[in-house]
Amino acid sequence: MPSDHNVVLCDGCDERIRWAITARGRRQAVNADPDPKGNLAAHTDHTGTLKVRVLTAERPTLEHAEWQAMPHVATCASPRPRPRPSSRPGRRATARYGTWRWAR
After folding, report:
1. What string of DSSP letters covers 19-41?
2. How far apart are CA 11 and CA 25, in angstroms?
3. Contacts with 95 (C-beta within 8 Å, 6 or more apart), sequence order
4. pLDDT for res 83
């Protein structure tokens, strides 16, 4: 059972969550308490960082000190709205480079 020292409240629904790092290095909110219906295996590494991985067909069971977690986005009562797509896809802000002149 994980400790409560890194538990925060969700901005949308005020439920208890933990921030974890996925295998690809992205942040993901997970429910603070273990959930037997969750599809994530969570563990705290040697630096104290909560890491999660998806339970897949290749690795379907929990290993060592892992506990089963649910992604918070699946249970959040008031999720944040997703950003709307740009009206001009493919257009990004760019910097205009000028001609460099060396001072002599």
Report:
1. EEE-TTS-EEEEESS--TT-SEE
2. 22
3. none
4. 74
Tokens of 44: 């705290």
Mean pLDDT by 10 residues, the chain (104 residues): 77 91 93 92 91 90 90 87 69 65 66
Residues 6+ apart with CB under 8 A from 51: 20, 21, 22, 23, 42, 43, 44, 45
Please tell me the distance from the alpha carbon of residue 33 to that of residue 7, in angstroms, as a whole number: 10
Single-letter residue type at 52? V
Could you tell me which of 27, 23, 37, 25 has the C-alpha nearest to residue 6?
A: 27
